[in-house]
Amino acid sequence: MRKALLVMALVLFGIYSFAFVDVPEDHWAYEYVMDLANRGILPMEDNFNPDVVLTKAEVAELLSDTLTYIENDPVLAKAEDIKRVETVMGLLNKKLDDALSVKSDVSKLKGETSRKLLETKYMVLDLGDRVTSLENALSKNTDDVSVNTENIDGLWEELETLQSDLDYVSGENVKAHEELKALIAKKADVEKVKELSEELNKVSTKLETITKVAYRAFNNADMVVEDMLDLSDSVDSLNTKVSTIEGNVNANTEKINAVEEKANSANTMAMVGIGAAVLAAVLAFVF
């Protein structure tokens, strides 16, 4: 912004009779600064402070002094100089707008940061509550572990008692097996008789089954014989019918032959009549 104001002073030329302490002749902006100072636009002070950033109020003051100078000395102010001043003012306005936009962005960023910090605070509080809840649960689990340990000790005692009972029962079981073996040895013959009886029952059952099958076979054979006799009667009946039909066919054949003979005789007579008629016609034509 400061450089833009100094560039604006390029349109002005003058003789320097004053110098700032902090703007030596080898400074890059010496001519521009002294030109504005000699024209009364910059205040005549010991220090110019070339590296200090201008405020909006200071920029407005410099622009106002520049316009006042141009209005009071229109001979020095050319059209191109006024155009340059307007260009510089446009650039200054754009810079000011950019600064305001940056300020707005900073405000938004500040608000967003505050919101994030607040969310983080709530998250930390929530985590604290969760940690407290976990600590309470851990304490409860510790108590449960103690109770379970006592229960396990009691179960071990019961298990030892059950093991003793199991050993006793195992011994009694061995005795019972020995007694059972003795009883089985005594009942061996009875078991053999029982097995033979069961085999005999099985054979009887098979014999009964075979008898039933044979009986059904005989019945089926009788039925087949009866069917064959019925079939033989049917064949004889059919033979009789065939003989009758053959007799009828022979009789019809004889009748057909008689009719054919009569037809042949009639045909012969017709031919004779036709011949006689033709002969009579010929004779009548000749005579």
TrEMBL record:
PROSITE patterns named among the record's database cross-references: SLH (PS51272)
Chain segments annotated as transmembrane: 268-286
SLH domain residues: 16-77
InterPro entries: Cell_Envelope_Struct_Comp, SLH_dom
Keyword entries, A-Z: Membrane, Transmembrane, Transmembrane helix
Secretion signal, residue range per the UniProt entry: none
PANTHER family assigned: OUTER MEMBRANE PROTEIN ALPHA, OUTER MEMBRANE PROTEIN ALPHA-RELATED
Record's protein name: Putative S-layer protein
Gene source species: Marinitoga piezophila (strain DSM 14283 / JCM 11233 / KA3)
